[in-house]
Amino acid sequence: xxxxxxxxKPTILILGAGYGGMVTANQLTKExxxxxxxxxxxxxxxxxxxxxxxxxxxxxxxxPDKTRMKISDVLxxxxxxxxxxxxxxxxxxxxxxxxxNKGSVDYDYLVxxxxxxxxxxxxxxxxxxxxxxxTVNGAREIKDHIEYQFSRYHNNEDMRNGDLTFVVAxxxxxxMEFIGExxxxxxxxxxxxxxxxxxxxxxxxxxxxxxLPGFDxxxxxxxxxxxxxxxxxxxxxxxxxxxxxxxxxxKDGTEINTNTVVWATGVRGNPIIEEAGFESNRARVKVDKxxxxxxxxxxxxxGDCSLVINEEADRPYPPTAQIAMQQAVTCAKNLRALxxxxxxxxxxxxxxxxxxxLGGKEAIGIVGNKKLFGTSANFMKKMIDNRYLWILGGPGxxxxxxxxxx
Length: 406
Ligand SMILES: Cc1cc2nc3c(=O)[nH]c(=O)nc-3n(C[C@H](O)[C@H](O)[C@H](O)COP(=O)(O)OP(=O)(O)OC[C@H]3O[C@@H](n4cnc5c(N)ncnc54)[C@H](O)[C@@H]3O)c2cc1C
Known about the structure:
The chain is an alpha/beta fold. It folds into 2 domains: about 160 residues, FAD/NAD(P)-binding domain (3-Layer(bba) Sandwich); about 200 residues, FAD/NAD(P)-binding domain. About 35% of the residues lie in helices and about 25% in strands. The chain contains 11 helices and 26 strands. It has a 5-stranded parallel β-sheet with strand order 5-2-1-9-20, with helices on one face. It is globular, with a radius of gyration of 22 Å. The relative contact order is 0.14. The N terminus is likely disordered.
């Protein structure tokens, strides 16, 4: 890239190549010409991954590689300068971002889309003993660990009570989708390692009074019945008070022995947000209507690092890929307005529906006003997954990475 160009044109720096960052970068190539702006995208890895699919590779029902794609294969890197590195900190006053290996990068406009990390709600032992990383590498680790428990069964006389017990913390969407996949995987692992099916125990433990809090009760009942029939035991309204080396302690004093706790109780934003001094709630910034951080004309925060209030319900929207992608489009349009002139748009989420997979050909969901169960919900879920690939990389990416909806 020409050095003079870099000096003349404003620089937009995007942090994170998840749903928010990728769609912002893609949309900016449509909103602004290469001669009008420098766009730089920084991401930890040279690939983008489908966070919303990670319960599948984590349970072992999908190859981890299927969830990821090289950034240079889907973004036009002749228009976007891609830097593979980890963001260490944001210096708001100097308008500079510090990277782990490649020094610092200056910006005129910053888009923070660094995603989330697990929320522990103060429960001790989560980061030490539970699997809590919803990333490609985190999913690989969970999958291999689960398979290892089965592989030990005939080789270790000291197999403890609990070695074939699997605990999922949280009956929200992530926890329910993961246990759904695990119930599909377990019979195959039992067969592969000659483990009697009755040796396996699977628990989902939820602190709230219901699974999938806030979701349609009929669909919740459908999901719970289905999963119970596949051998899952739910402990609802039962907070976990501690995770330790050999299992979990529940609030009523019950001990569940296990080597495998998968943490899915919800998320907080990226800690870099707090460290940078943005005013935030659990590392999520309550952004202005135009998606900028309050009192920051030059910083947009989108995706799981942002917090958008649902005024009808008077509470924040749950963080989703759906919202992150919609924010990204508004963010790119507003960057265009800042650089070329014009009014900034206000962001209002357009929630098209919610669909959760339950393993195999099962799912539940609401699309518009319509409730979906079983195979029709499963079809819809796969179409949603494919739609995102289409937005990002057109039919070629759908052909390469897409899911068969039937
Ligand atoms: C198992 C699972 C299932 C889900 N299912 C759904 C669903 O069905 N529908 C839905 O709408 N939402 C779903 N979600 C939620 C959804 O995935 C998130 O809301 C969405 O990914 C948020 O997008 P984002 O761009 O903010 O962050 P992400 O997509 O997580 O991207 C963040 C990016 O930042 C990078 N990054 C992080 N830290 C650094 C750093 N320090 N330096 C450089 N790069 C960094 C990461 O590597 C990643 O590429 C699901 C989540 C999970 C875990």
